Amino acid sequence: MKEPKPWVRPALEYGPLLFFFAVFLLKRGETVQLWGQEYEALVFATLLFIPVLALATLLQWRLTGKLSAMQVVTLVLVVVFGGMSVWLNDPRFFKMKPTVIYLLFAGILGYSLLAGKHWLRLALSEAVSMDEAGWRKLTLRMTLMFLALALANEVVWRSMSETTWVYFKTFGLPLLLIVFLLGNASLFRDHALDGDGGGTDGSA
């Protein structure tokens, strides 16, 4: 299968989220009437976001032949929680969706750590090559990170304005993930299998 151009994958991954953000800003403070029902901006943006994300995910699968577990789970939860928000005309379900996603991944990684499994390595082995100590440390840190992100999402959507939450979801959460990865650069280096520090163990 021919590898798509480098810009295609990030466009398909982040394009739907930016589309959601643009629709929300365009309709912010307004109501949209569809099928005899009035929807506020966030619910209307969610209504459009669901099929756009589904289409982008399908296109990425067709172009690359694979999807990450996070992409699949995210799509399922967007359909479920986003659909509930649209069906019940209640944006709170969609706002809770990131919390559920992060708690789910924290639970999976936490269990894998306790059970001595290496599920994170299975998911990221194509991009990262580390010894077992490195994978254990990264699994623990990612578990704690997902728990922190779940808490942060709950605090923001429950205590701040809807617009603030949309900005946080669109830009804040991805930025925090990037900061996390950059903050673990030394771990990737010290435990790389082809590096001088590979094979060392230590506390997380």
Descriptive report:
There is one protein chain. By secondary structure, the protein is mainly α. It folds into 2 domains: 1-87, no CATH class; 91-204, no CATH class. The protein contains 8 helices and 2 strands, in the order H-E-E-H-H-H-H-H-H-H. Strands 1-2 form a two-stranded antiparallel sheet. The longest helix is centred in the C-terminal third of the chain and has 28 residues, at 132-159. It is a multi-pass membrane protein. Plays a role in cell envelope biogenesis, maintenance of cell envelope integrity and membrane homeostasis. Its main location: membrane.
Q: Please list the strands of the largest sheet in the order they lie side by side.
A: 1-2
Question: Which percent range fits the helix content?
Answer: over 70%
Query: On the 0-100 scale, what is the average pLDDT?
Result: 88
Distance from first to last alpha carbon: 39 Å
The count of helical stretches stands at 8
Number of strands: 2
Q: What does the radius of gyration come to?
A: 19 Å
Unreliable spans are: 195-204
Question: What spatial form do the alpha-carbon principal axes imply?
Answer: globular
Sheet bearing the most strands, described? 2 strands, antiparallel
**Amount of beta strand:** under 5%
Order of helices and strands: HEEHHHHHHH
Q: How does the helix and strand content classify structurally?
A: mainly alpha
What's the domain count? 2
Transmembrane segments: 12-29, 41-61, 67-88, 100-120, 140-157, 164-183
Membrane topology: Multi-pass membrane protein
Family: Belongs to the YciB family.
Protein name: Inner membrane-spanning protein YciB
